[in-house]
Amino acid sequence: MAERCAVIGVGQTHHKAKREDVSIAGLVREAAKAALADADLTWSDIDAVVIGKAPDMFEGNMMPEIYLAPALGAVGKPMFRVHTAGSVGGSTALVAAHLVKSGIHKRVLTVAYEKQSDSDAMWALSVPQPFAAPLLAGAGGYFAPHIRAYMRRSGAPEHIGRMVAVKDRQNAMRNPYAHLHLADIDMKMVEESMMLWDPLRYLEACPSSDGAAAMVLAAEDALSGQYPPAWIHGTAMRSEPTMFAGRDQVNPQAGRDCSADVYAQAGITNPREQFDCAEVYVPFSWYEPMWLENLGFCDLGDGWKLTESGATAFDGDIPWNASGGVLSSNPIGASGMLRFLEVAMQVRGQAGEHQVDGAKLALGQAYGGGSQFFSMWVVGSAKP
Amino acid sequence: MPESEALHAEHHLEYPYSRSVGPVIGAFLTGLRDGKLFGVTGAGGTVIVPPTEYDPTTGDDTGEMVEVGPGGVVESWAWVSHPLRKHPLQTPFAWALIRLDGADTAMLHVVDAGGPDKLATGDRVTVKYRPASERIGAMADIEAFVPEGGAGA
């Protein structure tokens, strides 16, 4: 993969509980048109389209890439649909990046979305399937025991999850696109919210959102756009099965391998020092300290201490999820792409009120399924 | 007895979905409820029926809604001699591609012609709506297209 690749356009919708004013096509076009405008391009400038979303059963729109091809200007062009559960927004961006890095295409449009109001994703995740272990009460019910295991292992005190829930919602107040704008959020409000899946309370869980994200990726000789390019310094993806004996779901091997790979490509030996910020898939509060350890931002068992110290806050030394993260907007299929898109915005200097001062190098991470799919990229303002 | 027996499981999946149709398809469906047919202008001034939010060839936004029909021309058709229970008509009918007056694309619907010998490609047909009180904003608000001049069944 000899070619350099950069993000030259980004676009996203205003994420909301219900976007009843648009169809699914209208939703994805809103993000795609914003990305094209940011890149100073039109539909005809695009060579290929890569689309991603979470399981089709979430909207009951089977193989939506068929219906969305003309809506995304893909007629007469290659179009790919990617699917890796909740990490899909990240892996979709990676497939698009690889089409440019391999020298096959000059400009690729990549789009991810979810329209959760067309159904109820939590129950779509909970349908018992024949001959398979039941997932029971949605994603939160699946992850809560792993969070308890983390707390037991690390000795983390109970308030750490609440701190993340407050921090990310405060960050969202700086992001006009975020679904949740909870001006009065504080530790007490989180503590008094309903217990959903012990130890997760209502305000420690992500919302259900309608929304879409889009980016235009380009080769070095096809740059354009309103802002400087965000150069891609590394891309990696790793997978493992949902369930097998001895699998560590608290600190999955696939996540560790994925970060080792992307760090080696980008020359990262000390992520906390070298990155200026990170956007990491934290759909439930406790996944911040868990992923701090999995991504090597600290030693094993110290993730919660980093959170507690304020290091990951907007004014900390390594801000995590300055956009408000998945805890503030969760159009599932797009949630991973939003992480990748937000770090591109940071190193391009276009993040507005949630801009991390002088951000030059940043990590985007998405995970999905039962903590079994990991996708990551490193973007920077300097050419790799 | 077979040498091996596959596992079988009962699995009944029932699950509610909704759809927001957006401003363009929404206007088309509202038109049906009100007894009017609408298309939309695409690239180069073509009129697309049923309307789309985007030009299907260029991807650009489509333009103004324009009223079309109520008459049109049968471009192609297939006769159904033995309708099934789920079919829109319970008497023999034609599935047909109908290019409505003022439209540049054809729309799929049914023609109640009375018999395959009473329908030909190029024939003119006109819309027959259900009574206003029964219309809900759906394709089935059109009961059928019928031969212009009332030659049908």
Description:
The complex is a heterodimer of chains A (384) and B (153). By secondary structure, chain A is an alpha/beta fold. Chain A has 13 helices and 11 strands. In chain A, strands 3-2-4-7-1-8-11-10-9 form a 9-stranded mixed β-sheet. In chain A, strands 5-6 form a two-stranded antiparallel ribbon. In chain A, strand 10 and strand 11 form a beta hairpin. Chain B is mostly beta strands. Chain B has one domain (22-147). A 5-stranded antiparallel β-sheet of chain B has the order 6-5-4-7-8, with no helix packed on it. A 3-stranded antiparallel β-sheet of chain B has the order 2-1-3, covered by helices on one side. Chain B is globular and about 65 Å long. The model of chain B has no long low-confidence stretch (mean pLDDT 93). The interface between A and B is medium-sized, with 31 and 23 residues.
List the helices and strands and how they pair.
The complex is a heterodimer of chains A (384) and B (153).
Chain A: E1 5-12, H1 24-38, E2 48-53, H2 64-68, E3 79-82, H3 88-101, E4 107-115, H4 121-124, H5 138-154, H6 159-172, H7 187-192, E5 195-197, E6 200-201, E7 210-219, E8 230-239, H8 253-266, H9 271-274, E9 277-280, H10 287-294, H11 303-309, H12 325-328, H13 332-348, E10 361-368, E11 373-380
Helix pairs in contact in A: 3-13, 10-11
Chain B: H1 22-33, E1 37-41, E2 47-48, E3 65-68, E4 71-80, E5 93-100, E6 107-111, E7 124-129, E8 142-147
Antiparallel strand pairs in B: 1-2, 1-3, 4-5, 4-7, 5-6, 7-8
What features would you highlight for this structure?
heterodimer; A: 384 residues; alpha/beta; Peroxisomal Thiolase, Chain A, domain 1; nine-stranded mixed β-sheet; two-stranded antiparallel sheet; 13 helices; B: 153 residues; mainly beta; five-stranded antiparallel β-sheet; three-stranded antiparallel β-sheet; 8% helix; 30% strand; globular
